[in-house]
Amino acid sequence: MQLKSGSIAATLGALAAGLLSTPATAQQQDAAQAPAPAGNAYDQTASEVDSLVSDSAVLFYQEDAGRVRAIEAETGLVWNGANGLSIAGRFTYDSLTGATPNGATRANRPREFIGPAQPRREGERDSSTGASGAYSAPAGTLPVDPNFKDERKAVDLGVTLPPLAGFKLSLGGNGSWEGDYTSWSWRVGLAKELFDKNTTLSVGYNYEHDESKPITGIPMPLGSMGDRPIGKQRIKRVDSFVAGITQVLTPNWLVQLNWSTGNSRGYHTDPYKLVTLTDSASGDPFFYIYESRPRRRIRNSVFLSSKLALGSYVTDASARWYHDSWGITAWTFGLSEHVPVGGKAYVEPLVRYYHQGKADFFRNYLLLDEPTPTYVSADSRLGAFHAWTFGVKGGVHLNDRIELYGSVQRYVQNGQRFYANAPGNMAKVDLFAGSRSISVVAGLRFKLR
Amino acid sequence: MLNCNRRRIALLALTASTLALSACAHQGAKLGAAPWERDVLARKSMQLAKEPALLAFDDHTYFSKEAASGGRSFDGGGCGCN
Q1: What is the Cα–Cα distance from A31 to A51, expressed in whole angstroms?
Q2: Cβ separation of B71 and A413 shorter than 8 Å?
Q3: ipTM of this model?
């Protein structure tokens, strides 16, 4: 994200610099056609040459029905030198609480859930993070682990070097620490402007190394709920590659096309997720086993984005196609409109539509008398659903140095809830476990220099 | 198989049209912007990632709730939320 954002920002910064360095004759020639002085603060140039800017924001995220609540705060500093050198640092802190679905289906009777068996030291609590201790789900309700609780701290550093022979090189690194998960990554990107800076080609590579350390240990894939864990931690490695082209079509229209691919190897299973074994005659849950996912996942996506300005209004439209080796295909469409308000503010209504098909190994439940597949997951995030986001973003310049910004968004997932071909009572049970949430962000940007 | 072919055709058309536009920009001189026409492109409101913090929050939320990721940038997540 930072790498690409940085390269785009640097590109447009260079475009602005190009404007400023245009020969006097050209500027005079163009003076007659020049637009009236900018009427809104967001019509001003984005060039941040020789500046030091701090940017801090807080996200409040709450899912419906008392599910996950997250508070995420981040603060960052960006220094842009006069020669194109840019250095950025960011620190993020997340706090997660609430209840999260454990993969089991609803049922018309209460159910009990237990974590993997393990010797406990005297006085030790059942859980401090993730799903682990014993808990129950009342009849008719979606089984959720009420003990979901975690904290995350993350650091990101990025550097864009001064252009050399027209090439811009960016380097960066990221580290993230949770109670049961650690991740670090490094990245490198290269961008080149062509054809009077109307075309920017960019490529980037990112390596990510993740360690999953569930508080309950690693459960045996497809093992019975409550079985002893088979280890303490597992590793995942991800190689990602992005290639993109940004093209100026007209003086007020810009498009971007990206292709990204990722090759992920290692532990992808969610150690806290269960799959329901169902009696094929009655349709009632009989028992639960731990899920199992393939050890490799290859992702591909194509992303197309367009920015079109009409006066001080800007229409932002984007589309993304995604497909991975687990059989999931997804489409995403986004549309927003930047609307200036007075001389110092803007609002931006937005809508986003997302649709995904299910993974090959996704099952709402398994039948007791069927052979257990090698891979199976009932995690709703791997099932078929569609989602709408409605929201509004906005910002206001309080003065030359201070800017406030924020957003309010409503996110709603929907999918098939009932299956007529399900056995017995399972046909009367709502099998959809998707989420609905509201998120509010408030941010402050301060130009120190 | 039919869906797969349609998907490939759609992707090819998308890529070809973008490359064609790009080529026109360089040859026809009607597409693109001259150096003195870049005031609008340089605006804050025209940045492709004008609010990086808001985009990062959005991406984190979607990464933890949906199977798809990447596109705008790399497809990793850097957290155990998915």
Answers
A1: 28
A2: no
A3: 0.85
